[in-house]
Every structure is written in C-alpha cells, then in structure tokens.
Amino acid sequence: MISRPVCPTFECCGGSALLIGMDTPQVTTSLIEAAVAELERPDRDAVLGPTVDGGYWAIGLKAPNDAVFHDIPMSRSITFGRQMHRLRDLGMRTSELPLLRDVDLFEDAQAVAGEIPYSDFTHCVRGVAAVMEPT
Known about the structure:
By secondary structure, this protein is α+β, with helices and mostly antiparallel strands. Helix content is 34%, strand content 13%.
C-alpha cells in the first residue's frame, strides 16, 4: 500500500477546483455543472455559494491561492461576506452561486428535506423526527 500525505489546500489540485460542503445534501449535478461552467469562463477567477446562515456551501478557484483563506472565520454569520471580500481584495473576479441552506441543526435538516422530498436524506430525517415525537 502506498501512503501519500494529505494536502489540505487547493495547491494540491494543480489547477481549478470546486470544494462543496458536505452539509448541503440538496446540491444537484446541475448546480455543480453550473458552478464549474461559471468557473471556466475566461472572465472569472472564483465562485462562491452563500448559505442562509451567512456561511458558504461551495468555493471554486481557477488557480490555487492560499491567501484566499488566511484569517477567514469559518462557521460564522460573517463567513460568506468576509470570504467574498477577500476574493475581491485579491483581485479575483468572482461569481456568486445560488443561495442554499446548509444543515447545522435539525430544523435545517427538516427545511432541506422539504426541498428534496424523495431523497434518502429526507427518508432519514423523517425517521429521526418519528423517533423524536413524544409518545
């Protein structure tokens, strides 16, 4: 078995990359394709997808740049705004992706389940809700 070191930055990608948060189960192939298409435009350097709580569900960079993330507070109501400001301060021509809700609380899970009613995620949320109901 060959062991390779994990590289936690965009620098390891060697080119364009799109990072999507794992707490947005409603992300579809078409959302990903649209984000990639936007990032591939010659007049774009980055894409950023806001979340309802002030964070972001996706970030894409045409070229790696670790300065993008330096001192950006994560998981806060100001994260998206600070990240967008940083991208623009670095001269990156940035497109905003559609607003999504990420799943941090059970209430978020219920709201997202309402958006994707026939998904495995919704089936699981309904199962948890049934267990949580008082008897």
